[in-house]
Design a protein that fits this description.
This protein is of the alpha/beta class and 716 residues long. Helices cover 39% and strands 19% of the residues. The protein has a seven-stranded parallel sheet, with helices on both faces. It is globular, with a radius of gyration of 30 Å. The two termini are 32 Å apart. The relative contact order is 0.10.
Length: 716
C-alpha cells in the first residue's frame, strides 16, 4: 500500500479521500472511460460466453468474454486460462458488480482484461433493494495492486476502531471558535461523512470542512514564516537624493507606466524598513519588470549597498548584463575615464568566464567597486564574497532550487532584501499558496509602443498548405526588414533530451514520432522554404561563447531567422523580431507557449506567433493551443494551464520531493476558502506566534511540515 499509493500511516489512509461516489441505481457512464488508466465501474452483466481459440501450435485455449452495460454504453471484460468457467458461473447475465482494471483497446473497442470484480447483492425486500440501490459507494484513487474496495474495507476498519475509542488521539487543527464561527462540522463527523456518506449533503459538508483543514494549516505555516521574517534584522536602504537613481531617471528616453511607478513605490517602502523585504514581482512578458528591478538595485547602490541579480541561464544572464549596461550608459562605467559622476560598476559572473575576467569580477565584488552583479548559479560559490550585499533579485523563480536562493541570501552581513521576479502570471489564489510568504506586486500594463501579437494554430497534418503559408509569412517579415524565430522542442544532436525518449502517449498518432529537432529543422528550412535567408541555430548544449555570439549577431540584425530550443523562452529581447513559428507546439505547456510568444512584438511592428501542430482537431492538445491563440491574457492562460495539469504540491513538490499536501482543496476553484483561511491564519499567528494556545494545530503543522518541507519554507 505504502509503495504504490504513498499510504504509510492510519492518518494517510483517513485522508485518502474517495475521488467520486457511485450509486448502485445510477450506473457509471462507460462512454467516458480514459484509455490506459485504472478505473472502477459499476455495471450490469449483459451476456457472457466462453470461446475456444487456437494457441498457435500449442493446442486450444479458452477465453471468457463478458459484456457489461450501464444503460448508455457497453464494454467487454475478457478472461483467459483455467479460471474462465469459475468466472462464467459468477458473472451471470443480470448480475451487477464493481469491475476494476486498466482500460485497453482491442479491435477498436474498450475492454478490461482480467479485471478484479466484486458482485453486489441486493436483498429481495423492496425497501432494502431501494436502500441498497441509493447507497453512495466511495470510489477511491486506486492502482492495480490495491483496488478501490480493498481501500474501502481498510478505511472501514480504521473508522470503527476510532469510533470505539471515542476518536481518542485525533487532533482537530481548527480552533473551536473558528469552526463554530464558520459553521463547520467537527473532524470525526467530517471523516465519517466523506468515507460513509448517507446523502450528497453529507459529502458536501465533509468536503467543505476538509478543504478548510488543508487551507488553514497551510496558511498558518505561511503566516508564521511571514511573521518570523518581520523579526529578522536588515539594513534599511533609502536612496540618496541626487544620486545614481535620480541620474538614471533623468536620462530615461520614456516615461514609466503607472504600474511601474506603483510597484517601484511598494518596493522602495519595503527597502526602507529594518527587516528584509520578501516581495514577488509578477508581470506579463514585456511589462517592464527588468526596469523596476534595475531601479530597485540602483536605490540600494545609492544607499551604500550592493545588488545581485540571479538568472537561470548564461544566455539570460548575458542578456540582462547587456541590456542593463546599455540602459545605464555612462552610469555603468564607474572607475573608468568615461564614467559619470555617480557611476557604479556592473559586472557579469558566469561559470564559463575566463580565469582573468573572473578574478577581476570577484575583486570588484569584495571591494565594493561593483555595485551591481548579474550572474548565474556561479554567484553562489563559496569563493564569491560581497562587500555589503543589500538586495538579491531572483529572475524566473521557478527555475531555481531552494538551496541556490538560500545560499545567495546567506552572503549578506545581515539578511539582504529579496525581490523575486516571474513572467509566468500566477492566479491570485496560487500566489497566496505557492508564494504565500511573499508580498505580491503585479505589473499588468504594457509600456507604450508595445505591439499586439496575433496568434494562429497551423494544423500541419490536416492542412499542409497552411504550413507552406507559414513559411511564406516568415519570408514576408524578413523582406520587410524584420526577423523571426523558429522554436523546436528538441536539439537533435544525438544526445536528445530525456523527454524525447518517453513512451508515446496514446492520445494520437502524432505523438508517436520524436519531436522535431532544431538541427534537422534548420537544415530543411535552409535547403527548402527559407533558402537564401540567413538562418542560425541556438540551443542549450552550445558553448556559452558560441551562444552569446549567435545572440549578438541576431540582436544586431546579422541573422534573419533563429532556429532555437526554449533557451529563448525568457529574457531575450530583440525588438526587430516580429514572427515566431513554434513547431510541435502541442509538446509545450500553455504558460511556456505564452512565454515564448512574448519574444515577438517587442518593438513598434506587430508580432505574429504561429503554433504548428499535427494533432487532430478534436484532441485536448488542439483545444489547449486554441486557448493560447484566443487570448493574450497570461493570467487566464495560467488558470487554464493549472486546471489541465492539476496542482502539484504548493509547498514545492518538484523542488522538495515530498508528496502533495492538497487532497481536497483546489487552488483555482476554492479562492473563497483560501482567502478566508489566510485572514484567519494571520490573526491566529499575530495573537499567538508560537501557537501555545493551539496544541492540536501545532500537531497538524508538524505533520504538514516534515523536515524537508520546513526547510523549503525556511528557504523560500
Amino acid at each position: 500500500m505504502a509503495d504504490h499509493l504513498d499510504l504509510h500511516t492510519v492518518g494517510d489512509l483517513l485522508h485518502h479521500y474517495p475521488r467520486r461516489y457511485a450509486e448502485r441505481g445510477e450506473l457509471t457512464a462507460l462512454a467516458d472511460l480514459p484509455l490506459d488508466e485504472h478505473v472502477t465501474v459499476v455495471a450490469q452483466v449483459a451476456d457472457a460466453r466462453v470461446l475456444t481459440f487456437n494457441k498457435g501450435g500449442r493446442g486450444k485455449g479458452q477465453r471468457l468474454e463478458v459484456t457489461i452495460t450501464d444503460g448508455s454504453g457497453r464494454m467487454q471484460l475478457v478472461f483467459f486460462g483455467r479460471a474462465v468457467f469459475f468466472h462464467q458461473k459468477e458473472l451471470l447475465p443480470g448480475r451487477r458488480g464493481m469491475f476494476a482494471g486498466k482500460v485497453g483497446l482491442f479491435n477498436r473497442k474498450l475492454q478490461l482484461s482480467h479485471p478484479e470484480y466484486k458482485l453486489l447483492d441486493a436483498d429481495s425486500d423492496a425497501e432494502q433493494v431501494k436502500a441498497f440501490a441509493s447507497e453512495l459507494l466511495p470510489i477511491y484513487p486506486a492502482c492495480k495492486q490495491l483496488e478501490s474496495w480493498t481501500i474501502e474495507q481498510s478505511v472501514s476498519i480504521v473508522l470503527d476502531s476510532l469510533a470505539a475509542t471515542g476518536w481518542a488521539g485525533l487532533a482537530d487543527p481548527l480552533p473551536s471558535a473558528l469552526r463554530e464561527g464558520r459553521g463547520l462540522t467537527d473532524l470525526p463527523d467530517a471523516l465519517r461523512k466523506v468515507h460513509r456518506p448517507r446523502t450528497k449533503a453529507d459529502i458536501e459538508d465533509a468536503r467543505q470542512r476538509l478543504k478548510w483543514d488543508e487551507a488553514f494549516v497551510l496558511q498558518v505555516a505561511l503566516a508564521r514564516r511571514r511573521f518570523a521574517d518581520t523579526q529578522l534584522p536588515a539594513v534599511a536602504r533609502r536612496p540618496a537624493p541626487g544620486g545614481l537613481l535620480d541620474a538614471f531617471d533623468a536620462k530615461l528616453p520614456f516615461t514609466l507606466t503607472d504600474g511601474q511607478r506603483k510597484v517601484s513605490a511598494e518596493i522602495f517602502d519595503d527597502l526602507a524598513t529594518e527587516h528584509p523585504m520578501h516581495r514577488l514581482l509578477q508581470g506579463e512578458v514585456g511589462s517592464g519588470k527588468t526596469m523596476v528591478a534595475l531601479r530597485a538595485m540602483l536605490a540600494v547602490v545609492d544607499a551604500g549597498g550592493q545588488a545581485a541579480m540571479l538568472a537561470p541561464t548564461e544566455v539570460l544572464a548575458q542578456q540582462h548584463h547587456r541590456s542593463i549596461t546599455e540602459m545605464m550608459g555612462e552610469l555603468a562605467e564607474g572607475g573608468t575615464l568615461g564614467g559619470a559622476e555617480h557611476a557604479t560598476k556592473v559586472v557579469l559572473l558566469t561559470g564559463s568566464m575566463g580565469a582573468a575576467a573572473r578574478r577581476h569580477a570577484l575583486l570588484d565584488l569584495v571591494t565594493g567597486e561593483a555595485g551591481i552583479v548579474i550572474g548565474t548559479h556561479a554567484l553562489i560559490e563559496d569563493k564569491v564574497k560581497f562587500h555589503d550585499l543589500g538586495l538579491v533579485v531572483v529572475d524566473e523563480q521557478h527555475r531555481f532550487g531552494v538551496e541556490q536562493r538560500d545560499a545567495l541570501r546567506g552572503k549578506g552581513k545581515q539578511p539582504p532584501h529579496l525581490l523575486v521576479m516571474t513572467a509566468t502570471p500566477i492566479p491570485r489564489t496560487v500566489a497566496m499558496t505557492v508564494f504565500g510568504d511573499l508580498e505580491t506586486s503585479v505589473l499588468d500594463q504594457l509600456p507604450a509602443g508595445r505591439s499586439p501579437i496575433a496568434s494562429h494554430v497551423v494544423p500541419a497534418a490536416d492542412k499542409p498548405h497552411f504550413l507552406t503559408r507559414a513559411w511564406d509569412r516568415v519570408r514576408e517579415e524578413v523582406e520587410n526588414g524584420h526577423q523571426a524565430y523558429v522554436v523546436c522542442p528538441r536539439i537533435g544532436d544525438g544526445e536528445d533530451d530525456p523527454k524525447a525518449k518517453k513512451k508515446p502517449s496514446a492520445e494520437d498518432d502524432a505523438e508517436k514520432r520524436p519531436p522535431l529537432a532544431v538541427l534537422e529543422v534548420a537544415e530543411k528550412l535552409t535547403a527548402g522554404p527559407l533558402a537564401g535567408l540567413r538562418v542560425e541555430v541556438l540551443h542549450g548544449r552550445m558553448y556559452p561563447d558560441d551562444k552569446d555570439a549567435v545572440m549578438r549577431r541576431f540582436a544586431a540584425g546579422e541573422a534573419d531567422v533563429l532556429v532555437a530550443t526554449t533557451v529563448i523562452e525568457v529574457g531575450v529581447n530583440v525588438p526587430n523580431a516580429t514572427a515566431m513559428v513554434i513547431m510541435d507546439a502541442d509538446r509545450f505547456g500553455v504558460s511556456q507557449l505564452h512565454q515564448l510568444r512574448g519574444r515577438v512584438g517587442r518593438g513598434a511592428a506587430p508580432g505574429l506567433c504561429l503554433l504548428v501542430t499535427e494533432m487532430p482537431e478534436a484532441s485536448p492538445a488542439r483545444q489547449r493551443l486554441g486557448a493560447v491563440a484566443s487570448t493574450l491574457d497570461g493570467f487566464e492562460l495560467s488558470r487554464i494551464d493549472l486546471e489541465q495539469r492539476r496542482e502539484g504540491d504548493v509547498l514545492g513538490q518538484a523542488q522538495s520531493g515530498v508528496r502533495s499536501s492538497l487532497r481536497m482543496l483546489t487552488v483555482i476553484d476554492d479562492e473563497d476558502v483560501i482567502t478566508a483561511a489566510r485572514e484567519e491564519a494571520t490573526a491566529v499567528v499575530h495573537a499567538d506566534p508560537d501557537l501555545t494556545a493551539h496544541p492540536e494545530l501545532r500537531i497538524a503543522l508538524d505533520a504538514l511540515l516534515d523536515k524537508e518541507r520546513e526547510e523549503f519554507l525556511d528557504k523560500g
